[in-house]
Amino acid sequence: MTQVPIGSDRLTLRLPAPGDAASIAHLLNDEDVVRHLSHVPFPYSIEDAHSFIDSSLGRGLLKVGHAFLIEERSTHAVVGAIGVRAKDLPDGLAVGEIGYWVGKAHWGQGFATEAVAALLPHCFDVWGMDRVTANVNAENVASRRVLEKCAFSAVGMVDLWMPARGHATPSVVMVLGADQRACDNALPILTVVAVALLDGDDRVLIAQRPEGKAMAGLWEFPGGKIAPGESPETALIRELNEELGIDTEQSCLAPFCFASHRYDSFHLLMPLYICRVWAGQPRGREGQSLRWVAVNDLRDIAMPAADVPLVAMLRDFL
Q1: In the beta sheet, which residues pair with residue 156?
Q2: ∠ CA 54-55-60, rounded to 5°
Q3: For residue 108, what are the CA distances in angstroms to 37, 79, 102, 143, 244?
Q4: Cβ(176)–Cβ(152) under 8 Å?
Q5: pLDDT at 33 over 90
Q6: How far apart are CA 317 and CA 256, in angstroms?
Q7: Which of 50, 141, 247, 299 is spaced 20 to 30 Å from 177 by Cα?
Q8: Is 8 in contact with 115 (CB distance < 8 Å)?
């Protein structure tokens, strides 16, 4: 079993719940969306949504495999769905077929690419698949581009039945093998250091990334890059002074845990420290907003994907 939810920069992949049926039916009862899908009926009813949900939770009849809703983290709105199901092949290889859709109102925002990239590591590393395939309607250039961005290659064509069209249409067969992921190792490793500043009520200080920066609007633990020749503690002391105008000492920094997260162009390694003692009043010296938040409330705040596992560790610790 994979650990859910699965987080990315802007999205959460989570199991559906009965209360999601109306959202799913609303997004899928759209011919422009369903006309490219080979396993989805049209018109799409609330009963169809409940059948999908039941099957995703292991108590229905549809062959959905590992199926998740795609939720936008900042709004908690359902924007689509993604899943992978095992295929039986005579060569003994473990193969999964991935499928996804995004509601029309959310097209053009890169959600499908981000969701596929988030799910693929679980296909190979958790479920032990040797390769992942996808069938893309030949007319659906945008969906093919999603897979190409995730290193899939076209290997052939197949005719698939499209329920919304009432006939079979040509589809491109796309494949990604586990051995093609070797390029992941070539990503540069970026090491940054972060801290959970805790006040007397065990609230933690978070800072919002300002406009103009990558992942603007998300909230994160204070910290920053480690300069050449710096230790993580020295870098953190410097960053706290530059960013927040506070001073602390190495003896006040307790190593706690770390995050390891792959982004598109680099792999992030981020040790997290806990600090309860410092001098000065934190203030955003670089235009960032600050908030003191109860640790249990962090789950409802949009944070970078790398920070999400750290939140769970803090909740367990405090």
Answers
A1: 173
A2: 75
A3: 18, 12, 10, 11, 37
A4: yes
A5: yes
A6: 10
A7: 141
A8: yes
Distance of CA 166 to the CA centre of its chain: 34
Quick count: other Cβ atoms within 10 Å of Cβ 106? Answer: 17
* Cβ(82)–Cβ(100) below 8 Å: yes
Q: Is the pTM of this model over 0.90?
A: no
Chain position carrying tokens 């079993």: 1
- Other beta carbons within 10 angstroms of residue 318's beta carbon come to 14
Task: Say if CB 69 and CB 57 are below 8 A apart.
Answer: no
Q: Which amino acid is at 68?
A: F
Give the position of tokens 């495999």. Answer: 65
Q: Is 59 exposed, middle or buried (0-12, 13-18, 19+ CB in 10 A)?
A: exposed
Tens digits of residue pLDDT in 42-89: 999 999 999 999 999 988 888 888 999 999 988 899 999 999 998 866
Which residues lie below 8 Å from residue 15, measured CB to CB, with a gap of 6+?
4, 5, 56, 57, 67, 68, 69
Q: How would you list the strands of the sheet with 203-208, edge to edge?
A: 219-220, 203-208, 290-294
Answer for the pair 161, 170: CB distance below 8 angstroms, yes or no: no
For residue 48, what is the DSSP state?
A: H
Task: Please state the φ and ψ torsions of residue 129, each to the nearest 5 degrees.
Answer: -80, 145
Rounded to an integer, what distance in angstroms lies between the CA atom of residue 91 and that of residue 69? 32
Amino acid at 35: R
pLDDT tens for residues 151-187? Answer: 899 999 999 989 989 999 999 999 998 877 644 445 6
Which pair of tokens denotes residue 73? 């983290």
